[in-house]
Design goal:
By secondary structure, the protein is an alpha+beta fold. The chain has helices at 4-51, 54-65, 112-115, 127-147, 187-203, 241-258, 266-273; strands at residues 71-78, 82-88, 94-100, 155-159, 162-166, 177-178, 206-207, 216-219, 224-227, 234-235. The protein has a five-stranded antiparallel beta sheet, sandwiched between helices.
C-alpha cells in the first residue's frame, strides 16, 4: 500500500507522463496533417502534366472568356521552364499557347537576363512575380522583333505566365521542324540565321541570348528560318550583350560546321551581325 504522499507523487508523475504523451500525440497528428496537406498541394501542382495549377487555370479561363482562344488541344513542345500547346481561336485558326511553369526552379537562374536589362529595372522579389515578368519580357521581345521585321512568331497577348502567339506550323496543326531535326541543313539556312540575327540586333536592338539549333524553326514550304523562344533576349545596352551574342554565334557556327556547311569565322560573324562589316 502506498501512503498518501507517495500516491500523490505517483499521480503527479502519471499525469506528467500522460500530458507529455498527449503533447507528442498532438505533435504527431499535426505533423501528419501537415504532411498530408503538403502531399495534396504537391499533387495538385503536378496535375495536368505539371502545367495547370490553379493560378494558370484561372488565367486560361479568363483568356477563353475574353475570346483569345476557344480551347487547348495537344502539347507540341516542352522544356524545363515552359510547355507549348496547340489551341484554336473562335475562327478555328491555330495559335500557340506557351505556359511558363510556375513550379519550375529554373527561373532563378534567369535573373542575369533581367537584372541588367534597362527595360526591366524595377524587379520585385518572389518566384511568381519573376515568372510573370519573364512571360511579359518574352512577349515584349517578340513584339519588338516582329515589328522590326525579324522572322519570329507574332505575339498576341500575355497574362501572368501565359503567352498566346502565332502558331508556326502547317494547316493541319503540325509544327515546323526545329533546325536540329531538319534535313538537309544548307548554306542558305546558315545565311538566313545570320541575316535574321543581324536584323534582330540592328533593327530590334536585341540579342537573342539563347540561340541554338533547338529554338530555330525551318519552314521548308516557304524556304524560311524562324527564330523563337525569346524569354532570354536582352537589349543591346545590357552589360553582357556582347558576351551573349558571342555565345549565340559560337553555338550556331558549331552546329552548321558539324553539318559540313561553310561558316564565317566567329569574330567575322559577330561583326557581320553587329553591322560592322558587309563582307
Amino acid at each position: 500500500m502506498l501512503g498518501k504522499e507517495e500516491e500523490l507523487e505517483k499521480n503527479r508523475s502519471d499525469y506528467a507522463q500522460n500530458t507529455a504523451m498527449d503533447r507528442a500525440d498532438r505533435r504527431y497528428l499535426r505533423h501528419e496533417r501537415e504532411n498530408r496537406l503538403l502531399i495534396k498541394t504537391s499533387e495538385d501542382r503536378r496535375v495536368f502534366d505539371d502545367v495547370f495549377d490553379m493560378r494558370t487555370l484561372m488565367v486560361l479561363n479568363s483568356m477563353i472568356s475574353d475570346g483569345v482562344f476557344k480551347y487547348l488541344r495537344s502539347p507540341f513542345a516542352s522544356g524545363k521552364e515552359s510547355k507549348l500547346y496547340l489551341a484554336l481561336d473562335n475562327n478555328d485558326k491555330f495559335l500557340a499557347i506557351k505556359i511558363h511553369l510556375t513550379v519550375s526552379a529554373e527561373f532563378k537562374k534567369r535573373l542575369q537576363y533581367i537584372a541588367g536589362d534597362p527595360r526591366f529595372s524595377n524587379i520585385k522579389k518572389g518566384s511568381q512575380n519573376l515568372i510573370a515578368i519573364w512571360a511579359k519580357k518574352e512577349f515584349r521581345n517578340l513584339k519588338t522583333a516582329y515589328e522590326a521585321g525579324v522572322s519570329v512568331p507574332s505575339p498576341y497577348q500575355v497574362r501572368r505566365n501565359v503567352l498566346a502567339m502565332e502558331f508556326m506550323g502547317d494547316s493541319e496543326g503540325n509544327p515546323y521542324l526545329n533546325l536540329v531535326d531538319a534535313d538537309p541543313i544548307t548554306s542558305e539556312d546558315y545565311d538566313d540565321v545570320i541575316e535574321e540575327t543581324a536584323k534582330l540586333y540592328n533593327k530590334a536592338n536585341l540579342v537573342h541570348a539563347d540561340l541554338s539549333q533547338y529554338n530555330i524553326f525551318k519552314d521548308v514550304d516557304h524556304a524560311r528560318i524562324i527564330l523563337f523562344d525569346f524569354g532570354s533576349s536582352i537589349d543591346i545596352k545590357h552589360p553582357k550583350s556582347k558576351e551573349f551574342l558571342t555565345r549565340d554565334i559560337v553555338n550556331i557556327n558549331n552546329f552548321f560546321a558539324k553539318h559540313g556547311v561553310k561558316i564565317l569565322p566567329n569574330e567575322l560573324a559577330i561583326k557581320r551581325v553587329m553591322g560592322e562589316t558587309n563582307n
